[in-house]
């Protein structure tokens, strides 16, 4: 049995699952903490978007590497 094609798509597909889980955990933690202490929303929101940006940047980096390799 011979495998043909590129495994890059499979690798990126698996990597994007990690990004999706990471974003879900970030927003779940934010919603839980704001539900417990609504006055902390202003201090937590910048950290929320920073974490979201890092996770998405890693997912985009994986997409770029899938096309390069």
List the topology elements:
Elements: H1 8-36, H2 41-68
Question: Could you walk me through the main structural features you see in this protein, from its secondary elements to its overall organization?
Answer:
Helix content is 83%, strand content 0%. The chain is mainly alpha-helical and 69 residues long. The chain has one domain: F1F0 ATP synthase subunit C (F1FO ATP Synthase), CATH 1.20.20. Helix 1 runs antiparallel to helix 2 (41-68). The longest helix has 29 residues, at 8-36. It is elongated, with a radius of gyration of 17 Å. It starts with 7 loop residues before the first helix and ends with a helix. The mean pLDDT is 87.
Task: Name the features.
69 residues, mainly alpha, F1FO ATP Synthase, 2 helices, membrane, proton-transporting ATP synthase activity, rotational mechanism, cell membrane, ion transport, ATP_synth_csu_bac/chlpt
CATH class: Mainly Alpha
Shape, per Cα inertia axes = elongated
C-alpha Rg, in Å?
17 Å
Strand content: under 5%
């Amino acid at each position: 049995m011979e495998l043909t094609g590129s495994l890059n798509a499979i690798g990126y597909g698996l990597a994007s699952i990690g990004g999706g889980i990471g974003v879900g955990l970030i927003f779940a933690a934010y919603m839980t903490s704001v539900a417990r202490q609504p006055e902390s929303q202003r201090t937590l929101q910048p950290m929320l978007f920073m974490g979201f940006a890092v996770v998405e940047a890693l997912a985009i980096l994986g997409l770029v590497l899938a096309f390069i390799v």
